[in-house]
Fold Phage gp36-like protein.
Amino acid sequence: MPLFATLADMQARFEARDLVQLTDEEGTGEIDAARVDAALIRADAIITGYVARRHKDVALLAGNQLLSDIACDLAFQELWRGDRPEHVKDRHKDAMKRLSDISAGTIVLDGGQEVAEPRPDAIMFPGQPNTFGRDSLKSF
């Protein structure tokens, strides 16, 4: 099952006739949900590869609208069998650019747990000794 987008998201983002034309190999006039899900799963794999660089648990980002849009654009291109129109190529290019920006930290996603990058040469020093400790309060 796809993580970031669903068939309903694809139907909301693209024309139904386009989805039927791209997925209906049987000639039923209906959208082939299995083909759409397969394309969305492949899109999820690409997204996870980029997002996991910054976020520990990618599954926490499942409801993120930006990632849903990216998944739809990647899956839509995946459904094309032959030459892709320019607008499809442009959407794919924009989606990949956004993923690169997420991976680089330029775009910050809401939710999820971002992985903090280690800072070189961090200064470590001990704190002050306790003023009121077990040993200092023995006489009271």
Remarks:
- The CA atoms of residues 27 and 67 lie 32 Å apart.
- The mean pLDDT is 86.
